[in-house]
């Protein structure tokens, strides 16, 4: 390969031949770096690590580097991967303007957030007792002990972190910039394309969906939308990266996952559905806060049981547990599939009710007692009320669940 010597860029040359080198873009944006990167023919002496695949780069050869970050460089073949680069050459394009901030400060304690412009939001005070019951309108998770804003006039809450979610951002899982969407018709829900969880609340969508319906009409929940590199998880000792788009076995649940973060020090990979699990949760079956645990991996150790479904727990996968009580609970049992829905709201034409009453109703579909944190309650007529325990049950046999009423099943 003459071309290899010629342009000193063996990756691209071996991959695409001589013409590949010439057609390489000069200035591009990639989905995991805030600044543009431009093609450089040699990186300068040093130990370079590719900012995408995290493997070594040979400094005499070229790559893409950042003018503002002296240590950031990417292999040409990695920078131009179609899950990393949107295919646009930016050489003659002006730099993008600063994005609009998600909120304006009114005074020390009050803001106006673009999702709720009609009222001011005030920094919440610490002595609120019912923090578990209050849900953030962006991520739908309980406010708990996090810093939050509360609307001065209505029941609208935002974690401070969620109020600061950028209105436009890059995301390591998609090659276009995504936009924060905040409102929709009541009762509308979404399914995150990466973690496959149903959710309500804020979400990221791709502007490109307006142009090409086939490729980008998807929703990303704020959990997946906020994932960045390096991704640190307290249950794994090394940082994780989105180095490849291969399907891998998730080290947390043991299932094949289409979207994984990988460890560059060991073989561990973490699927998005597990990477975004709440690290701590409250559940009625334990007085303490439960946290994510990994099993000891030993199938010969004493069999543990889930107190919610009374089934066995698998020592090879993650679970929610309490160290003081020795509680071990299946993740699916603790969260159900409506954990990111807001109790009190209507979904599928039925009201989502917290499952914390004295008795638990029977699901009309699976005929079992509802065991998840909340259930759907549909008032059919004066004398009939029906219950559904999960989206899994309530959207069965309906091709598009969204518009179907629970009681029409
Ligand atoms: Zn690379
Ligand atoms: Zn940079
Ligand atoms: Zn939140
Ligand atoms: Zn309000
Ligand atoms: Zn997600
Ligand atoms: Zn998993
Ligand atoms: Zn590792
Ligand atoms: Zn269980």
UniProtKB/TrEMBL annotation:
Pfam families: C1-like_CT (PF22926), C1_2 (PF03107). Residues 135-196, 249-289, 305-367 form the Zinc finger PHD-type domain. It comes from Capsella rubella. One of its GO terms (molecular function) is zinc ion binding. The keyword Zinc-finger applies. InterPro entries: C1-like_sf, DC1, DC1-like_CT, Vacuole_Formation_Reg, Znf_PHD. Keywords: Metal-binding, Repeat, Zinc, Zinc-finger. The keyword Electron transport does not apply. The lineage of its organism: Eukaryota, Viridiplantae, Streptophyta, Embryophyta, Tracheophyta. This is Zinc finger PHD-type domain-containing protein.
């Amino acid at each position: 390969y003459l071309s290899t010597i010629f342009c000193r860029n063996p990756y691209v040359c071996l991959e695409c031949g001589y013409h590949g080198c010439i057609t390489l873009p000069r200035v591009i944006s990639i989905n995991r770096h805030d600044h543009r990167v431009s093609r450089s023919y040699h990186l300068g002496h040093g130990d370079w690590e590719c900012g995408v695949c995290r493997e070594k780069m040979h400094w005499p050869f070229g790559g893409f580097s950042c003018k503002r970050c002296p240590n950031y460089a990417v292999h040409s073949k990695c920078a131009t991967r179609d899950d990393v680069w949107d295919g646009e050459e930016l050489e003659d394009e002006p730099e993008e303007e600063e994005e609009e901030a998600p909120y304006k400060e009114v005074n020390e304690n009050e803001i106006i957030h673009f999702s709720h412009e009609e009222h001011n939001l005030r920094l919440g005070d610490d002595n609120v007792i019912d923090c578990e019951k209050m849900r953030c309108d962006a991520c739908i998770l309980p406010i708990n002990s996090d810093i939050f804003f509360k609307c001065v006039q209505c029941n609208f809450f935002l974690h401070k972190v969620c109020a600061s979610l950028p209105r436009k951002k890059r995301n390591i899982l998609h090659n276009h910039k995504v936009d924060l969407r905040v409102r929709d018709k009541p009762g509308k829900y979404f399914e995150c394309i990466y973690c496959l969880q149903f959710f309500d609340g804020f979400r990221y969508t791709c502007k490109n969906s307006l142009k090409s319906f086939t490729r980008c009409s998807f929703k990303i929940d704020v959990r997946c939308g906020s994932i960045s590199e390096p991704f640190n998880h307290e249950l794994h000792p090394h940082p994780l990266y989105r180095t490849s788009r291969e399907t891998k076995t998730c080290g947390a649940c043991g299932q094949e996952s289409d979207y994984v973060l990988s460890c560059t020090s060991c073989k561990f990979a973490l699927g998005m559905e597990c990477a975004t699990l709440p690290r701590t949760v409250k559940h009625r079956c334990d007085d303490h806060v439960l946290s994510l645990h990994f099993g000891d991996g030993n199938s010969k150790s004493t069999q543990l049981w889930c107190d919610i479904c009374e089934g066995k727990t698998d020592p090879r996968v993650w679970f929610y547990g309490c160290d003081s009580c020795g509680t071990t609970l299946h993740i699916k049992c603790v969260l159900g599939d409506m954990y990111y829905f807001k109790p009190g709201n209507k979904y599928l034409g039925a009201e989502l009710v917290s499952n914390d009453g004295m008795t638990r109703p029977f699901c009309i579909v699976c005929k079992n007692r509802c065991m998840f944190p909340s259930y759907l309650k549909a008032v059919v007529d004066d004398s009939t009320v029906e219950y559904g325990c999960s989206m899994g049950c309530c959207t069965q046999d309906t091709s598009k669940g969204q518009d179907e009423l629970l009681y029409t099943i």
